Amino acid sequence: MQATQKYGQVVPDANSNLGKKAQVADMFNHIAGNYDFLNHFLSLGIDKVWRKRAIREVGMVGAKNILDVATGTGDLAIAANALNPDQIMGIDIADQMLEVGRKKLDDLGLNHKISLHTADSECIPYPSDTFDAVMCAYGVRNFEHLEAGLKEMLRVLKPGGKVVILEFSQPTAFPIKQLYKFYFRYILPVLGRVVSKHGTAYTYLPESVSAFPQGKEFTEVLMRCGYSRTVAKPLTLGVTSLYTAFK
Hints:
Helix content: 40-55%
CATH topology: Rossmann fold
Structural class: alpha/beta
Number of helices: 9
Largest sheet: 7 strands, mixed
Number of domains: 1
CATH architecture: 3-Layer(aba) Sandwich
Strand order of the largest sheet: 3-2-1-4-5-7-6
Number of strands: 7
Radius of gyration: 17 Å
Mean pLDDT: 91
């Protein structure tokens, strides 16, 4: 429980009177215009490979109704369209991120298949047992109440449905661990601050990753929330992790 408790204390701005949820929404609304560029640039484009791995996992259950939690600008939802589902719903608390996503859907002609809505992961506005798969890319780390959000994702899954989660993690092998920490602590925050014009967004990122439960610890959180058959797969030498579980 120690890492989970520490995770809950990490917020974008420790000097703010706002709660984590409001701070996260404000942060992402502020950087929405540069978010996609920074995502691809700061990950050296590897984020596209990680999303493909996540979508492959979703495809294994033949999902026809898919929910993308913390969808942001909709990249994971758009990638899931390759599975030819009946419908993809995306939810996020940051309106400006969703606006960027809707513009992308317009440009791609995907509005008939993918819908993006403002909603809270801790109070998902859909009935229980609705979706074949629920997915989330780099969003659970930003939940104000981690287990509440994970339990809501479980609630809207159909029995036997699958959850697929991508989240940053920390490599453990030398020298990748040392190189990763140097990049995440000193290079990424500077580049992120210059491009996004936001003072804390890319300082919060490494701090929140460091505090977040990963690997076996996170699968134990999933099991505590009611999931079964939990699996953690490190990707790219452990820079990110792919988690899967079932209802």
